[in-house]
Amino acid sequence: MTNGAWLRKAWRYVESPIYVGIGATLIVASMGGLIEIWIRLVSPWVMGRSPLDILEILDQLLLISMLAEILQMVKISLVQRRLSSEPFLIVGLIAVVRRVLIITAEGTRMISQVSVQEFLVLMMELIILAVLLLIFVIAIQRLRQQRLDEMRRLREEARRYGEAPSWVELLQGQVE
Questions:
Q1: Global confidence as pTM
Q2: DSSP code for 99
Q3: What is each CA distance from 33 to 28, 41, 42, 61, in whole angstroms?
Q4: Average pLDDT over residues 25-38
């Protein structure tokens, strides 16, 4: 066994438990967040003790969806032994949408209490978030288009040469 092969094998033994631990922690955090929403926000509303705070629920659910996307990244890393950029972009997209929703909802609640300077700062933040939103959407679209083009190219090569590596083999790094 060469030094490189030994190192790769050792790395996998160390890497897998770390990813499993991260995944388990994300699952516990996500489930805890959902339980907290029900105990702290929904149950009191059902029992008639407090009004339903939709904004708080939405904020928490978007945070949990970000955790779920990060969990997806961990799963991809564990199963396919590769890092995919699309889940990172989706987490960014969710974070931007979350912030836009919070700013607009909070802004409508306190519209009469905000100074002109605070209003301009909020508008500037919304403009920056809108630009980020556009960048994330374009990046996700281009990434998916690039993947589709690569699959088409591989199919064409397979038809032409017959022995071309499969898409899965390329993604898993099995082709040298």
A1: 0.67
A2: H
A3: 8, 11, 13, 8
A4: 95
Check if the beta carbon of residue 70 is closer than 8 Å to that of residue 91: yes
Other CB atoms within a 10 A radius of the CB of residue 161 amount to 8
How large is the average pLDDT for residues 55-84?
84
Token pair recorded at residue 5? 């092969």
Residue 142 has pLDDT above 70, yes or no: yes
**Domain residue spans in the chain?**
1-82, 85-176
Average pLDDT rounded to a whole number, residues 59-73: 88
Give the span between the Cα atoms of 152 and 147, in whole angstroms: 9
Q: What b/e string do you get for 99-112 counting C-beta neighbours within 10 Å, with b at 16 or more?
A: bbeeeeeeeeeeee
Helix (H) or strand (E) holding 5: helix 3-36
